[in-house]
Structure formats: C-alpha cells, structure tokens
C-alpha cells in the first residue's frame, strides 16, 4: 500500500492525476506526505540517515495507508451506490419505456385491425354495389337488345305494310256497267277498303252521297251516264 501512496504522489507531481478529483482530506494527507518525503530526501546524506529516512518514510506511508484505503473504500462504496442507483433508475426507465411501447403496439394493432375491418366492409359494399350495377347494366342491355329486336320487327312490318299499301293502291280503274243514259249501277272489279274509294265522272271527282252511294262493290250513281262517258275510280284494294 505504501508503494501505492508513493506512486500516487509521483503521479500528482507529474500531473497525470488531477488532484481536484480527490477529497479535501485525501489531498491534505497526500500533500503532507509529499512534504515529509521531500524533507526526508533533503536530509538523507549518510547511510544511517538514509535508513532513518526510509524508516520514517515507511512509517508515514503506513500511517497514511489506512486513511487512504478508507477514503478509497468510501469512494468505491459511493461509486457503487451511485452505479446501483443509476442501474435502478435505468431499469425503471426501461420498464416504463417497455410498458409504453406495449401500449403503443396495442393501439397500433387496434387501429390496424379497425382499418382492415373498414377495408373489408368497404370491399364488401363495393362488391355488392358492383354486382347490383352489373345486374342493372345486364338488364338494360337485355332491354336494349329486346327493343332493337322489336324495332327491327316493327320496321320490317311497316316496310311490308307500306309495300302492300303501295302494291294495293289502285288508280284510274274503269268501273264496269252499261253507259246508256239509263244504268246507274257500276261495279268496282275487286274488294277495297272502306273510305278509300274515289269516283270520277268524265274527269270530275264525285261527292259521296250527293253524287253516288256504295253498297259492297257496287257504286250507284244519282244520274245515269250517257254513252261515251267515262266512269272510273281510285281505291286501296283489300284482297281476301
């Protein structure tokens, strides 16, 4: 231990140990030891003096040794206490941090689950809406297809009716009957649709009821045409 104290004094002299880091009591002891050591070195001139000096130095070292050891032990105990306190504080902080992390993890998981549930609900609603929309589109498409088919059929029917109307439209058809100034009945050569008959006498259109009447296919004129007169009609034939 004496060697330890001597080394400490040497290091303080050399400046490798900052004396301010030591307690005041320890600094005073080392300073006293340094002074005593210097005094001993100053008076060492003979062997007996060296022996006495070394004896005194040894006694001084041994006297300061226990004090230094106690100071060092106290410092070590204080450091150990500080370290233990720091470890406890750090452990508590770590536990608190872990608790916070777990709480945040629980919240994040809950939010994630809620988002996933919302996404699933939205996806289901969207799928149902898409299915409904597709069904409506399909129905509309079928309706359009049916309308197109009906329109095609109607166009064909109208075209056929128009063609039939054109083919059955009769113009300037001579009515059969005697032109002798006596006969008033003249016959249309084929059946015709009612109200489509137009009767002409020498190019003059006659008025129904006033100038003639119609029974079936027979036109009865109010005045009998003379020989050389012309009686004809326009009508829309009505084939049986």
What's the mean pLDDT score?
84
Strand content: 5-15%
**Cα gyration radius (Å):** 69 Å
Structural category is: alpha+beta
Description:
The protein has 240 residues and is α+β, with helices and mostly antiparallel strands. Among the domains are: 94 residues, no CATH class; 62 residues, no CATH class. The chain contains 3 helices and 7 strands. The strands form 2 sheets. A 4-stranded antiparallel sheet has the order 1-7-3-4. Strands 2-6-5 form a 3-stranded antiparallel sheet, with no helix packed on it. Strand 3 and strand 4 form a beta hairpin. Helix 1 packs across helix 3 and helix 2 runs antiparallel to helix 3. It is rod-shaped.
Write the layout of secondary structure elements.
Layout: H1 2-14, H2 24-43, H3 47-168, E1 169-174, E2 185-187, E3 198-201, E4 204-205, E5 212-215, E6 218-221, E7 231-236
Antiparallel strand pairs: 1-7, 2-6, 3-4, 3-7, 5-6
Helix pairs in contact: 1-3, 2-3
